[in-house]
Write a structure and sequence with these properties.
The complex is a heterodimer of chains A (about 100) and B (about 250). Chain A is of the alpha+beta class and about 100 residues long. Chain A contains 1 helix and 5 strands. Chain A is globular. Chain B has one domain: 3-Layer(aba) Sandwich (Rossmann fold). Helices cover about 35% and strands about 20% of the residues of chain B. The longest helix of chain B is centred in the last third of the chain and has 19 residues. Classes of the chains: A alpha+beta (about 100), B alpha/beta (about 250).
């Protein structure tokens, strides 16, 4: 793409693409050209499973405002769940985000 | 845009996917379109944009054939797996784009294939949009055998040190002194990659090295203003851009 601003983080979760759910193992986060959102650049998140091939992908493309609001909302929801003592530990070892451009 | 053919003229074209030798002699696939007939026709290597080897590029390849070129669009993401162009393109986007060295090897292979065909003349151009525009500039500077270079809004021809990566370790502007063919550049003044300032920097470097180039900059247009399937499409600017493009290839490749 034309900015090449991209990072990848290992994740644990499941995503749905079409009728089927599948394991998502990586999240690719970029600020670059979206495919469908009518903006020149967008905050793009692809939840993928690289081992399953390029088609194992759940994609969202967000405006900058929407992306910032989403981040704040996720943090707020997690904080509330933490406060109420209902957070569950994830059974995977957290892997830090890797900077695509330095690998 | 208008094409100078007559209504009683026979016209035919063949278009198909083929395999070819790319970087390091590796097999990749490519889309080729050519007019029927003995030729000789000039060649055009058509570099797909960052979003992928998609339908727009199939059509673009056929458009060049319609205008009398043997056109080849190599699949620069062949090694990144197969699926829809969008899914494969998203994978490459996440990986920071295709490596320049590999891309140049594939473009060199496409050039060699064209030169081996009996119906291709000795004149071959290279065309690209978006990341493909940047790669066209690279090809015109780093490879031999291109007689015209067309850069449509190629971002990151000018790169800061922070933008350099293992995949793209050198800014194409650094190779300007080695540019070996006339360059046509088409840009939108509302583009953010490249910005008008970056286009100015590139132009200044071309002037410094006395290169043969022409840049056209369009008001009211941003990035990707040829793409009729996107909101970025600007009809008036796109029509004029194609007109300038074919005038350029008439001068450089015919």
């Amino acid at each position: 793409m034309c900015t090449m601003i991209a990072q990848q983080v290992r994740i644990f979760g499941r995503g749905k693409s079409g009728p089927e759910w599948f394991d998502v193992r990586e999240a690719n986060v970029s600020y670059d050209h979206p495919y469908d959102l009518p903006l020149e650049h967008a905050l793009n998140i692809d939840f993928v499973n690289e081992a399953m091939g390029p088609g194992a992908r759940v994609a969202v493309e967000l405006s900058v405002d929407a992306a910032r609001q989403l981040v704040r909302t996720i943090q707020a929801v997690l904080a509330e769940a933490d406060q109420r003592g209902v957070l569950e530990d994830c059974p995977v070892i957290a892997v830090p985000a890797r900077e695509i451009s330095t690998t | 845009m208008a094409h100078a053919y007559q209504t009683d003229q026979y016209e035919g074209m063949i278009a198909e996917t083929i395999t070819m030798k790319g970087h390091n002699g590796e097999t990749i696939n490519a889309y080729v379109a050519r007019p029927l007939g003995a030729g000789p026709f000039p060649g055009m290597v058509v570099i797909h944009h960052a979003p992928g080897w998609d339908e727009w590029y199939r059509e673009c390849t056929r458009k060049f054939a319609h205008h009398g070129f043997v056109a080849i669009s190599p699949n620069l993401y062949f090694r990144d797996g197969h699926g829809t162009p969008e899914d494969v393109g998203a994978k490459v986007r996440a990986a920071g784009g295709a490596p320049d060295a590999r891309v140049l090897g594939d473009l060199d292979g496409a050039n060699a294939l064209l030169r081996s065909l009996p119906y291709v003349s000795r004149k071959i151009g290279v065309f690209g949009t978006c990341s493909g525009g940047r790669q066209a500039v690279l090809a015109g500077s780093r490879l031999k055998g291109f007689d015209a270079v067309i850069d449509c809004w190629g971002g990151r021809v000018v790169m800061s040190k922070e933008e350099l990566t293992p995949n793209q370790p050198v800014a194409p502007i650094e190779y300007t002194k080695d540019l070996s063919a006339p360059l046509l550049g088409l840009f939108g003044n509302d583009d953010k990659a490249p910005t008008p300032e970056q286009v100015n920097q590139h132009e200044a470097e071309l002037k410094k090295h006395s290169k043969n180039y022409e840049f056209h900059r369009y008001d009211g247009a941003g990035h990707g203003f040829f793409y009729y399937d996107r909101g970025a499409y600007r009809q008036e600017q796109a029509v004029d851009g194609w007109k300038k493009l074919f005038a350029f290839t008439d001068r450089t490749l015919r």
